[in-house]
Amino acid sequence: MPARRDGSLRSSPAIVNSGMGARESASPPFTIEEIRSDSSETTLASARALLLEYGRFVVTQPGAARFCFGTLEMEAARLPFSYLEQNGGCLIAHVQDSPSGFVAWRALPETIAPQAWELKRLWVRPQARGLNLGRALTQQVLDRAVAADRKSIYLDTAPATMASAHRLYLNLGFEPCAPYNDNPVEGLAWLRKTL
């Protein structure tokens, strides 16, 4: 994956489906960078805003009555350490220099799944949807997992309210699995991808 001078990663070329087959465009309409402990306060503030936007979306959905927004606020306030301290990380995406997407990951306890990560908090702002940004963010986590010699990635999602994300995960090779956490949100699907 090519690195830019500022240390952030450029996403690989976007695939555009023209209806007559796929073709590569010159460059994707977005950039993705890893959020690190030395990221700028502007980057951290943008990531926090995206994460809280995700949380506000979740709490408006049916079945989310037990979702703890306060816990998410603490997670956002401590970015990126809330993930780095769990042997994970997070990414932010920009479309034309506007913060537009976020995703995070963390290591799962060995007792749940050896050498596994959990994908968390995938969010793409409505105005940036349709650019394959969710796919690119998810793929970047998958690529990092392979590079880190992880054996699998787990996630939970709500197919009724996050249908596009659920379809994306299935298209990327995630398969249904037994519940691996005690997420209180109703109507969840638990998915796993072997790497």
Helicity level: 25-40%
CATH class: Alpha Beta
Gross geometry: globular
Instruction: Enumerate how many helices there are, as a single number.
Output: 5
Q: Would you tell me the structural class of the helices and strands?
A: alpha+beta
Distance between the termini: 18 Å
- The value of Rg in angstroms is 16 Å
CATH architecture: 3-Layer(aba) Sandwich
Q: Give the low-pLDDT segments.
A: 1-23
CATH superfamily: Gcn5-related N-acetyltransferase (GNAT)
Q: What is the CATH fold-level name?
A: Aminopeptidase
In total, the number of strands is 9
Strand order of the largest sheet: 3-4-5-6-7-9-8
Name the helix and strand elements from N-terminus to C-terminus, one letter apiece.
EEEHHHEEEHEHEE
Domain count: the total is 1
Largest sheet: 7 strands, mixed
Fraction in beta strands: 25-35%
Please tell me the overall pLDDT: 86
Structural account:
It is built from five helices and nine strands. The chain has a single domain, classed as Gcn5-related N-acetyltransferase (GNAT) (Aminopeptidase, 3-Layer(aba) Sandwich). With 195 residues, it is of the alpha+beta class. It has a seven-stranded mixed sheet with strand order 3-4-5-6-7-9-8, with helices on both faces. A two-stranded antiparallel sheet has the order 1-2. It starts with 14 loop residues before the first strand and ends with a strand. The longest helix has 19 residues, at 41-59.
